[in-house]
């Protein structure tokens, strides 16, 4: 992300809410770049929009939840191998 984009994003930031969270607009060059950069923040950031980007995070979260739901030792051998 270039310096001007960071300055613009910080300028758009709201005051912290009661939980200390801020809302801001973060311009990016593409949905793919936004997904890759914001995914690194894990649960420390929530994507509010656009809807297509939020949906990608929802899909990734569901896939991770399904992957980690069961202990790998409890899976069938072929299922465990397919997950690798």
Automatic annotation (TrEMBL):
* WCX domain: residues covered: 15-65
Q: Which Pfam families match?
A: WCX
InterPro entries linked to this entry: WCX_dom (IPR057727)
Q: What is this protein called?
A: WCX domain-containing protein
Q: Which organism is it from?
A: Streptomyces cirratus
């Amino acid at each position: 992300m270039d310096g001007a984009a960071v300055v613009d994003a910080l300028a758009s930031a709201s005051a912290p809410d009661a939980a200390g969270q801020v809302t801001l607009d973060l311009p990016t060059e593409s949905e793919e770049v936004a997904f890759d950069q914001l995914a690194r923040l894990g649960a420390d950031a929530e994507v509010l929009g656009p809807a297509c980007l939020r949906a990608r995070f929802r899909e990734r979260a569901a896939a991770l939840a399904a992957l980690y739901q069961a202990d790998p030792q409890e899976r069938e051998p072929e299922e465990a191998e397919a997950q690798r």
